[in-house]
Amino acid sequence: MAYKITDICVACGTCIDQCPVGAISEGDIYKIDPDTCASCGTCADACPTGAIVEA
């Protein structure tokens, strides 16, 4: 199951550097492409605010 970034994201960018498949895109709101996401959970583990959850 892919992950998603919730509205408590503070756009710190930590998750982008941690994603092994490059599924996260930067913007006003960070987004995870569900078709690219490998469901590894690395981004969720790295997120300091707990903004990344299973979709």
Mean pLDDT: 95
Strand content: 15-25%
Structural class computed from helices and strand pairing: alpha+beta
In N-to-C order, the SSE pattern is EHEEHE
Number of strands: 4
Spans of at least 5 consecutive residues whose pLDDT stays below 50 are none
Strand order of the largest sheet: 1-4
Major β-sheet annotation: 2 strands, antiparallel
- How many discrete structural domains? 1
Gyration radius over CA: 9 Å
Shape assignment: globular
CATH fold-level name: Alpha-Beta Plaits
Distance between the termini: 7 Å
User: What quaternary form is this?
Assistant: single chain
Helix proportion range: 10-25%
Output the CATH class name.
Alpha Beta
Q: Examine the secondary-structure arrangement and name the CATH architecture.
A: 2-Layer Sandwich
What's the total helix number?
Answer: 2
Q: What features would you highlight for this structure?
A:
55 residues; alpha+beta; Alpha-Beta Plaits; two-stranded antiparallel ribbon; 4 strands
What does this structure look like?
With 55 residues, the chain is α+β, with helices and mostly antiparallel strands. The chain has a single domain (3-54), classed as Alpha-Beta Plaits, CATH 3.30.70.20. 18% of the residues lie in helices and 18% in strands. The chain contains 2 helices and 4 strands, in the order βαββαβ. The strands form 2 sheets. A two-stranded antiparallel sheet has the order 1-4. Strand 2 (24-25) and strand 3 (31-32) form a beta hairpin. It is globular.
